[in-house]
Amino acid sequence: MFTELLVCLVIGGLIFLVQRSRKQVLIAEDGWWGPGAPPDEGEDVTILPFQVSTSDKELEDLYMRIDQTRPVPSLEDSQFSYGFNSQYLQKVVSYWRHDFDWRGQVDKLNQYPHFKTNIEGINIHYLHMKPKNVPAGSIAIPLIMIHGWPGSFYEFYGLIPLLTEPTDPHDLVFEVVCPSIPGYGFSEAPQKKGFDSVCAAHIFHKLMQRLGFEQFYAHGGDWGWLVTTNMAQLKPKTVRGLHVNFAPPSKPGLPIALSIMLGRRFPKLFGFTEVDVQRLYPCMDKLVVESIKESGYMHIQATKPDTVGRGLNDSPVGLAAYVLEKFSTWTSRDFRNLEDGGLTRKFSLDDLLTNVMIYWTSGCIVSSMRFYKENFGKGLDAPHSKMPVFVPTGFACFPNELMHTPKLWVKQKYRELVTFTAMARGGHFAAMEEPQLMAEDIQKFVKLVEKKKQQ
Amino acid sequence: MERLQVLKGTFCSLDAFQKQLLIGSAVAAGGILAYMVQKRRQVRSIPLGEGWWGAGEKPLSEDDKIYPFKVQTSDEEIEDLHERIDRTRYADPLEDSCFLYGFNSTHLKKVVSYWRHTFDWKKQVEVLNKYPHFKTKIEGLDVHFIHVRPPHRDNQKVLPLMLVHGWPGSFYEFYKMMPLLTENQDGLVFEVICPSIPGYGFSEASHKQGFNSLAAARIFLTLMERLGFSQFYLQGGDWGSLITTNMAQMKPQCVKGLHLNMCMSNKGFKVMLSLIIGPYLPFLVGLSREDVDRLFPFFEKNVWEMLQESGYLHIQATKPDTAGCGANDSPVGLAAYILEKFSTWTDNRNRDLADGGLERKFSLDDLLTNVMIYWTTGSIVSSMRFYKENFKENLNNRVDAKTGIFVPTGLAAFPNELFHCPKSWAQIRYRNIQSYNYMPRGGHFAAFEEPQLLANDFVQFVKKVEKF
After folding, report:
1. A8 phi, psi to nearest 5 deg
2. What is the mean pLDDT of residues B173-181?
3. How far is B376 from chain A (nearest CA, A)?
4. What ipTM was predicted for this assembly?
5. Crossing angle for the helix pair A56-67 and A316-329, to the nearest 10 degrees
């Protein structure tokens, strides 16, 4: 009896261990996201150059709508706690109406080459910047950078030159591809239900393949974090390294739960630094209450995207308030107590409004919101959220990120964490807010991974 | 007998100190018991409080006159609306998504086409004006209300009644019910006051933070006082249900009866217990068969459903200014936002229909009139702020959540209401339920959708209270 029990336990334990160490691979199938049924002929793989353009008509329409805004004054002394403050919104809109130069910004957008190509029935937009000078004896390292919501490829504009033309001769030179997630900006929106982050990852793999890259690095924040993570899970051999600045735990397991309960008393046990303790505790307030305060948008977008986006596609001011509120609050929570939401402390109005214009001119707010429903609509239990990542990963931990993740938590999912850097400053839109810091961390990470691979 | 002898024996064998202890604790226990029983009998109320919500500083005196008011419109207003409708930038819905992603764009175009070309706002304004409207200043805000006096008063008992609406509804929801309450001649008839919650429709919105249901309740009590009513009935659903409940808690002596078509149940041990035992032994925890049908499977029917349908509540309770901004410029955006609720909250199976089942229970004219009330007054943002003001602090810890309601109460449980509240759960707080009926059909907007059913239930409740 006893020996049988022992044998069962041993076999059971072995099976458990084998299961754990088996590298799970995520699988994705080809989809068809265009209208109707897929055509009989094969896929059209041509790549067409694309230019962002505008017209007098577009601008006149925008100005007319701005002029017809019906503003509602904010409550006395409410700053940004009820959402985007009405009085400050008037100032932003006045700048937008009279001083913002959209044509100038369109030229700025076009400074990098843009392209479109049809994958799985939808036209995918991306920019592709090849470095001008690659030092002799080395090659440009391919890197795909993926944005999130309510951002766009434009968030990376400050970062791109630091990677393609680094000033330091010891730095690596990158070849950068920045796509727009389908349904965002100049990428066509899917017409069928079910387009989630894994489908986006699958499409971006096809894109990189079509561009001739066998291996590449990936960087992302917000949705970009999830899509690049899925890319690493789909094809671990193709993704040479994964660099993210946002990594909320998708499946709180025992180590995370324990660390929350005991981490304050025994920080060293869980590798918590002072910053970790400060940002996580009191945990009811910092983790639960704060999340509830800031996730209303996520809740409604994950359930009724077509309803909430409806008015925003007609009212540019409504769209601006909705989008820019995030650039205020997600850069620093303290900005909620400021009359002007601290909006222009880290960003210029030109950059902020250019991002809003990408949503406005492409009319993509509704499809951008649908991505939330496709990913969260059935709960947080997708197969990929339970699978770890075995690709070398670098994590840049910015102090004002929405969800603070200490090293222990990141390691639960990213089993080959190569770098974990506590960044000096910056919030959720880190690439746009602190491009220099981000570039430095990407350099540090990639150099380390390359060195390891050569050994 | 033997036991008594044994007890007597034990008692006598105790020493003096032990005897004193025993007698002392028996008296104390009896005292505590008596106190508890007496406390339960006391009618508890919540404090009235005070507030001032106007712009800037409060003046020394306030004008408390009542001014007649007429709903008006102009050609400019209608032209502006049409222009904005014409400029709508639609996005195609996903194939086969019906109303699962929110208001379906394809159907929205049809509704909007009717709105643009067939809907006659001037005519609807006349419909609105068929009852007399008034405004009066209370706590710094212009409060709008309609006051309907029954035409046949002789040989009838005339009872004053206030009806309070919710979100995204308005006083207009009660228009179909009005004649059923004011024009009958069978001995019992009502004089109806129907206000707009400050921040909704024609009632001025608060300029200060903190305007919650307690403030609205107090303002409406002042209104009834100003109109000369010392005792009256109340009826409400949605926010109206909470506000009228608060009114009954603040001045129970004034409220003859409280009738609700939506009732929030406290989460508590009793509720949890009935959730666990309910599916198996419903009668043990005070649940009827009908209750069981409507409640279980609990997780799917209530929790998951709630999550699916409460996104609007979450964003309005946190960022109302952001959420409402675009809806105040885009009439189509506003219509989609509001009418989605009239579809889904009437019957949540409407989500699987391509047209959202919108016109099965309502006419487009009625639905759009309600939307126009929000549009022409630009009140969508202030209407959303009410959510934040009420959910700022944990609702379960607020003074009204911890206090019972002791006035005679009637509950009408509609089958497609957002969540079902069985009588046993309602009784936790509503201690004087005199009528509880399962309605055969109808959803959240009961007065709008099934005016006859609601009016019948209400009248039957009043008759019970009045011992008619």
Report:
1. -60, -45
2. 95
3. 11
4. 0.86
5. 80
